[in-house]
Write a structure and sequence with these properties.
This protein is mainly α. 73% of the residues lie in helices and 0% in strands. It is built from ten helices and no strands.
Length: 283
């Protein structure tokens, strides 16, 4: 048993720390963007349009990852775009987790009419296609950071509620819950002190996955010009622009795609690594 736990922790170690390292560097770059970005991300110079990265022939000093068709620095736009991506991930993911996990925990443990009402709400909500629903909400609310966050929360709380409800139901049938009730603990105390700690690893995994999904949703909305102002740098907007000039300036498309891929993958692997390392059941 001890060898199994050690093997799980060794397997979780590399992906946990590599994911945390990338996200930490990304967060640091986002916080320090005004000071570490080499250029103004909005500054245009048509004479410097579509400059290649520093290692390619024809590169210009100071433009490390080249420029787009308007002469804007790709690296600076990537760094400033990370601010919006991480803000949406942290704020939207946290609010979605709080609402969905709370409802799922109440439905899974209290059961009865509480479970019926929440379960029916989940079924109705999940009948709507999520991407189309988010686009409709943004169209109604108008583009903007708050609109993106509201759209993600309204759509994705069901993901937490369904999974946490199932986990809470499974934990509620365990002997330790019955022992707590025999000992005289209230249902609320049992739910918070007994069931929640055992459901928490699942919630953490869902939270990190939701953060990755939030980054993707923001990129999709930026891609179709339904995010923030089109002048502000976003990864989705850069991808949309790079798609039209892939044969002349591939770097405008490839670098934001790489940043998006690594960020989503890191959120996913961070959650799995934390679960493997700190899950009380595995311990």
């Amino acid at each position: 048993m001890a060898d199994g736990r050690a093997q799980i922790r060794r397997r979780a170690g590399p992906r946990l720390w590599l994911s945390a390292l990338w996200l930490g560097l990304l967060a640091l770059a986002a916080l320090l963007a005004p000071w570490i970005a080499p250029k103004d991300p909005l500054a245009q110079d048509l004479f410097l349009g579509r400059l290649p990265p520093f290692w390619a022939a024809g590169a210009e000093p100071g433009y490390w990852l080249g420029t787009d068709s308007l002469g804007r620095d790709v690296l600076s736009r990537l760094i400033h775009g990370a601010r919006l991506a991480l803000t949406v991930a942290l704020v939207a993911g946290s609010i979605t987790c709080l609402i969905g996990a709370t409802l799922g925990l109440l439905a899974g443990y209290l059961r009865g009419w509480v479970d019926i009402v929440i379960s029916r709400a989940i079924d109705i909500w999940m009948a709507f296609p999520p991407v189309l629903f988010s686009i409709l909400l943004i169209a109604v609310l108008g583009p903007g950071l708050s609109s993106i966050i509201i759209a993600i929360v309204v759509i994705d709380w069901t993901r937490f509620a369904r999974v946490v409800r199932a986990e809470a139901m499974a934990q509620g049938a365990m002997d330790y819950v019955a022992s707590a009730q025999v000992a005289g603990r209230s249902r609320l105390s049992t739910m918070v002190t007994e069931i929640l700690p055992n459901v928490l690893p699942t919630i953490v995994v869902l939270l990190t996955l939701e953060m990755g999904i939030a980054v993707i949703v923001e990129a999709i909305l930026s891609f179709v010009n339904l995010s923030i102002s089109t002048d502000d740098p976003t990864w989705g907007g850069m991808i949309a622009e790079g798609r039209t000039s892939i044969h002349q300036a591939w770097w405008v498309l490839i670098f934001p795609l790489i940043a998006l891929f690594l960020t989503v993958l890191s959120f996913s692997q961070l959650g799995e690594g934390l679960k493997d390392r700190y899950d009380p059941v595995l311990r």
